[in-house]
């Protein structure tokens, strides 16, 4: 039996239950919050925590028992705040280590690493492994998976460096990987290639945001290499309408790929990339409860069975985290 590390401590993989595989609690720019706390919306820690507690309780009330939060460096990871929230909500929160960048590595790594001014082993690998084995900062919370990204700019030197560091940390620890990708540039295939070159087990990789695409050939190519498809942006209808998202999942299920898909929203309680009022008006379904309330009934109407839904929500996450 594999124990999965969560904010509240280890949980047996068999008890993760219904799991949303890509959700954020907060997405924040720490320097912006410290220096411009009123932009784009005023920040009050107590108010935001209370709001997050309410939203996560609504999520849990839909029989969701676990959320997987890939908030890493570059997205504002701060575990003490998440711990305060999780004390008040009976839900498992699984957190990640890694770096989120579309281009360059953070400046702290520009001059330190293999072949650089300070020629050392890749420091990112050591930091990622520490988060997984010992815990994040002094919180006692251990990361359970790794996160990286490859977006429209493609495999820039910085992105490649992070991908390879993530692959190496995965090989050392066995922790699974989630990759933010842009399916319209087929970047999931690039991520698979680079990770495989580092020895990564592609069956332990979620190619995130695959649900933004209806290109079945591309999606099947990812699954045929062993990885999971992150059908994980339900509610972001501005990127792909609801009907097309649901239809793609239903068609892949019909073709026998249900054991290679996981579901989620990529939502958050608060994201400072967008004004809160504008976000709520433009993206009313980009919330934790959309899958439970709207997506699952729509999938059932299209012939997806309850057993297949269980596979995507429960069985696949359990397998992903079972080392």
Automatic annotation (TrEMBL):
Protein name: Phosphotriesterase homology protein
Necessary cofactors: a divalent metal cation
Entry annotated with the keyword Hydrolase: yes
Gene3D superfamilies per UniProt: Metal-dependent hydrolases
Gene name linked to the record: php
One Pfam short name: PTE
Cofactor note: Binds 2 divalent metal cations per subunit.
Record-level Gene Ontology MF annotations: hydrolase activity, acting on ester bonds; zinc ion binding
Keywords (A to Z) from UniProt: Hydrolase, Metal-binding
Coiled-coil region: none
Family from the record: Belongs to the metallo-dependent hydrolases superfamily. Phosphotriesterase family.
Binding locations of Zn(2+) 1: 22, 24, 147, 266
């Amino acid at each position: 039996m594999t124990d999965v590390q969560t904010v509240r401590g280890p949980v047996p993989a068999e008890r993760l239950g219904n799991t949303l595989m890509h959700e954020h609690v907060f997405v924040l720019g720490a320097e912006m919050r410290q220096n411009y706390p009123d932009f784009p919306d005023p920040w009050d820690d107590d108010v935001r925590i209370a709001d997050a507690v309410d939203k996560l309780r609504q999520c849990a009330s839909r029989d969701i028992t676990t959320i997987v939060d890939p908030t890493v460096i570059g997205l504002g990871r701060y575990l003490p705040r998440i711990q305060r929230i999780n004390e008040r909500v009976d839900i498992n929160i699984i957190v990640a280590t890694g770096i989120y960048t579309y281009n360059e590595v953070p400046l702290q790594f520009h001059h330190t690493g293999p072949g650089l001014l300070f020629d050392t082993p890749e420091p990112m690998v050591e930091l990622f492994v520490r988060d997984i084995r010992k815990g994040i900062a002094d919180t006692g919370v251990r990361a359970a998976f790794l996160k990286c990204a490859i977006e429209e700019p493609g495999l820039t030197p910085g992105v490649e460096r992070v991908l390879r560091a993530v692959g190496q940390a995965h090989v050392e620890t066995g922790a699974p990987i989630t990759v933010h990708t842009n399916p319209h540039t087929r970047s999931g295939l690039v991520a698979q290639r680079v990770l495989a070159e580092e020895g990564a087990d592609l069956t332990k990789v979620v190619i995130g945001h695959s649900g933004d695409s209806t290109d079945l050939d591309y999606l099947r190519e990812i699954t045929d290499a062993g990885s999971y498809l992150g059908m994980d942006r339900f509610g972001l209808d501005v990127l792909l309408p609801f009907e097309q998202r649901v239809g793609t999942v239903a068609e892949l299920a019909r073709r026998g790929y249900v054991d290679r898909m996981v579901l989620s929203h990529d939502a958050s309680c608060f994201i400072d990339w967008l004004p809160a009022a504008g976000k709520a008006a433009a993206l009313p379904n980009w919330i934790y409860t959309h899958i439970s309330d709207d997506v699952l009934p729509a999938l059932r109407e299209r012939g997806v069975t309850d057993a297949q839904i269980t596979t995507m929500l429960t069985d696949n996450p359990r397998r992903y985290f079972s080392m």
